[in-house]
């Protein structure tokens, strides 16, 4: 039986032999851009994963040029992760069965006869802070909805603290970096009478002791509204009349991992919602070009400067299944 050292050397040689030398410059440029450094012996396996993803992206974009897709993919800072590793890193919502029963949360339906604009984009009205890089937090969407509510009431756009929720919202069923649910995060803000600013309680990317001080609580909410489950029309009415709304999606596909531009649609199942994002608007000029404007929290390197344009009208990725907002 070969030694561990010999096995590691064999794996390294195997990876090296399979690597494409024409991608050397692209690989080095990508590492430099995203400040990637690896332990000794790890670079070859990460390079091999990166090349697999590169080829998948190239194939998809060629198919897009042939009219087979309505969106393009692009290499980003997740390029050295397999889809399995990506999902382990990004899944930030607890399974539905893991949630405590919903407390005092009412349901928004809206009037079926209500006419909504053909286009809504709350970014243009000043409701939306810049895209953040807070991978795995799970609370960015709830915070984004609060930021929009605070702007609506005060006319002042302030970045609020996800870390405050990561550290402090456990008694409402959330689990810090292990995951949570936006409605429970918003209920925490309601019960604690406020949330700290990002400057006052900066993001750290890991759980810590709760340091929230009520006297520093800035953004407040008096109640939480859930949008009728699975009803995109109700979600449209909420986004049109309320402002940014938190939504949950099934973000497990490799296509979403490398989404770059265009209107995303997928046959990927939506039975496992694992990521919370913020619906900041929509466009419904015609049925084939209708889409949601979705703010993500995976940095501006992902998607269209941090945004996803998601096909509207067929509940893609379960976008209308777990929507809520603060009042």
Automatic annotation (TrEMBL):
Residues 116-327 form the Peptidase C1A papain C-terminal domain. GO terms for molecular function: cysteine-type peptidase activity. Belongs to the peptidase C1 family. Keywords: Disulfide bond, Glycoprotein, Hydrolase, Protease, Signal, Thiol protease. The keyword Signal applies. Residues 1-18 form the signal peptide. Residues 27-86 form the Cathepsin propeptide inhibitor domain. One of its GO terms (cellular component) is extracellular space. It comes from the Eukaryota. Transmembrane segments: none annotated. It comes from Phrynocephalus forsythii. The keyword Protease applies. This is Cathepsin L1-like. One of its GO terms (biological process) is proteolysis.
């Amino acid at each position: 039986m070969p030694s561990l050292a010999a096995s590691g050397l064999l794996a390294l040689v195997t990876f090296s032999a399979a690597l494409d030398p024409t991608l050397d410059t692209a690989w080095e440029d990508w590492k430099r851009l995203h400040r990637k450094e690896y332990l000794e012996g790890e670079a070859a396996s990460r390079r091999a994963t990166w090349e697999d993803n590169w080829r998948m992206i190239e194939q998809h974009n060629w198919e897009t040029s042939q009219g087979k897709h309505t969106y393009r993919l692009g290499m980003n800072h997740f390029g050295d992760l397999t889809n399995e590793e990506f999902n382990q890193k990004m899944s930030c919502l607890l399974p539905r069965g893991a949630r405590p029963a919903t407390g005092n949360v009412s349901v928004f339906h809206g009037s079926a006869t209500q006419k909504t604009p053909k286009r809504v984009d709350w970014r243009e009205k000043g409701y939306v802070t810049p895209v953040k890089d807070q991978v795995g937090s799970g609370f960015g969407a709830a915070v984004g909805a609060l930021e929009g509510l605070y702007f609506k009431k005060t006319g002042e756009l302030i970045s609020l603290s996800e870390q405050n929720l990561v550290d402090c919202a456990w008694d409402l069923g959330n689990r810090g970096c292990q995951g949570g649910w936006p409605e429970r995060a918003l209920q925490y803000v309601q019960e604690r009478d406020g949330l700290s600013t990002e400057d006052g309680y900066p993001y750290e990317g890991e759980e810590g002791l709760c340091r929230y001080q009520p006297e520093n609580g800035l953004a407040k909410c008096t109640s939480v509204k859930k949008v009728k489950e699975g009803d995109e029309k109700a979600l449209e009415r909420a986004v049109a009349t309320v402002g940014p709304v938190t939504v949950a999606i099934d973000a497990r596909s490799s296509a979403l991992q490398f989404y770059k531009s265009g209107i995303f649609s997928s046959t990927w199942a939506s039975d496992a919602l694992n990521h919370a994002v913020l619906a900041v608007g929509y466009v419904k000029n015609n049925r084939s070009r209708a889409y949601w404007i979705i703010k993500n929290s995976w940095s501006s390197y992902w998607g269209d400067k941090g945004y996803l344009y998601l096909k509207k009208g067929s509940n893609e990725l379960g976008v209308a299944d777990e929507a809520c907002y603060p009042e």
